[in-house]
Amino acid sequence: MEFFKIKRDIPFMRHAIIFNVVSLITFLAAVFFLFSRGLHLSVEFTGGTLMEVTYTQPADLNLVRSTVAKLGLNDVQVQNFGTARDVLIRLPVQKGVTSAQQSVQVMAALKAADASAVMRRTEFVGPQVGDELAADGLKALASVVVGIMLYLSLRFEWKFAVAAIIANLHDVVIILGFFAFFQWEFSLPVLAAVLAVLGYSVNESVVIFDRIRENFRRYRKMNTMQIIDSAITSTISRTIITHGSTQMMVLSMLLFGGATLHYFALALTIGILFGIYSSVFVAAAIAMWLGIQREDLIKGGAKKEEDPNDPNAGATV
Amino acid sequence: MNRYPVWKYVIILIALVVGVVYTLPNFFGEAPAVQVSAVKVGVKVDSGTKVQVEAVLQTAGLAADMVTLDGNSVKARFGNTETQLRAKDAIQKALIPDPANPSYVVALNLLSRSPAWLTALNAFPMYLGLDLRGGVHFMLQVDMQAALTKKAESLAGDIRTSLREKNVRHSGISRNGQTIEVRFRDAQTLEAAKEILLDQFADLQSVDALDGTDYKLTASIKPVAALRVQTQALKQNITTLHNRINELGVSEPVIQQQGLDRIVVELPGVQDTAKAKDILGRTATLEVRMVDESSEARAAEGGTAAVPFGSERFLERSGQPVIVKKQVILTGENLTDAQPGFDSQTQEAVVNLTLDAKGARIFRDVTRESVGKRMAILLFEKGKGEVVTAPVIRSEIGGGRVQISGRMTAMEATDTALLLRAGSLAAPMEIIEETTIGPSLGAENIAKGFDSVTYGFIAVTIFMCMYYMLFGLFSSISLAVNLLLLVAMLSMLQATLTLPGMAAMALVLGMAIDANVLINERVREELRNGASAQAAIHAGYDRAWATILDSNVTTLIAGLALLTFGSGPVRGFAVVHVLGILTSMFSGVFFSRGLVNLWYGRQNKLKTVSIGTIWRPEPDAPVASK
Question: Which residues between 505 and 524 in chain B have a beta carbon less than 8 angstroms from any beta carbon of chain A?
Answer without folding.
Answer: 506-507, 509-511, 513-514, 517-518, 521
